[in-house]
Design goal:
single chain, alpha+beta
């Protein structure tokens, strides 16, 4: 598949400006895992396509002389009306996409990772009603998708005074997780515990800059 132009689906993780009329699109895909692509942009380029966790179809043009390939002819692969029409869910996508961006190094492509990540986006899009606990469930599932062992025994060293709440979280299935009666302080504490757990296994800091956005969302829920 590396020879000539070909179309694949990409999940948008973030962008970095590149020259006057270009960006590097940081993405996740089934075929190449975490990878950046050069995208030429103009005044009429549809910026909404590049929102965090958007699913886009793109034609990939390999460059035999560079690791930075080109992505062109971007178009929406899957509409996400349940996310884009909801400020709370949009705030979550800022956080979730940054975790993926910072946790996954270029070239990382764990088996099943993209399928899980795509499914998690569609799940968030479809959720109705209570969902402020979703990022906690997502972090647990991400740890599993990365091949870690998110058990109580494994995470307990990071729990401190929140061991009981962590035990409840780990013992809940998906539906029960969403309905756990946690307050903003508890959600924030559990989120930081899970991030520390990920950092420990990844062996590098994540430095999630969007965490204050999630804290504000937790406080309001």
């Amino acid at each position: 598949m590396n020879g000539g132009p070909h179309s694949i689906e990409l999940m948008v993780l973030g962008t970095t400006k590149f020259a006057e009329n270009g960006i590097v699109l940081h993405s996740l895909s089934q075929e190449y895992g975490r990878r950046g692509y050069l995208v030429r942009i103009g005044k009429k380029s549809p910026q909404g396509l590049l929102s965090p966790l958007s699913l886009v179809e793109a034609e990939i043009v390999p460059n035999p002389k560079s690791e930075l390939w080109t992505a062109r002819h971007l178009q929406e692969a899957q509409p996400l009306p349940g996310i884009r029409g909801n400020m709370g869910k949009n705030a979550m996508t800022l956080f979730l996409s940054e975790v993926l961006l910072r946790a996954l190094r270029d070239g990382v492509n764990e088996p099943g990772l993209y399928a899980w990540a795509r499914s998690s986006v569609l799940t968030l899009d479809s959720l109705q009603g209570a969902y402020p606990n979703y990022p906690l469930r997502w972090l647990l599932e991400f740890a599993g998708a990365m091949g870690f062992r998110p058990s109580l025994e494994d995470i307990a060293p990071f729990a401190g005074e929140h061991l009981a709440a962590l035990r409840t979280l780990l013992g809940a299935d998906f539906s029960a997780t969403l309905l756990l009666p946690l307050n903003g302080t508890e959600r924030n504490a559990l989120c930081e515990i899970l991030l520390h757990y990920l950092e420990y296994h990844l062996e590098y800091p994540l430095n999630i800059r969007s965490l204050p956005v999630l804290r504000e969302l937790f406080a309001q829920s």
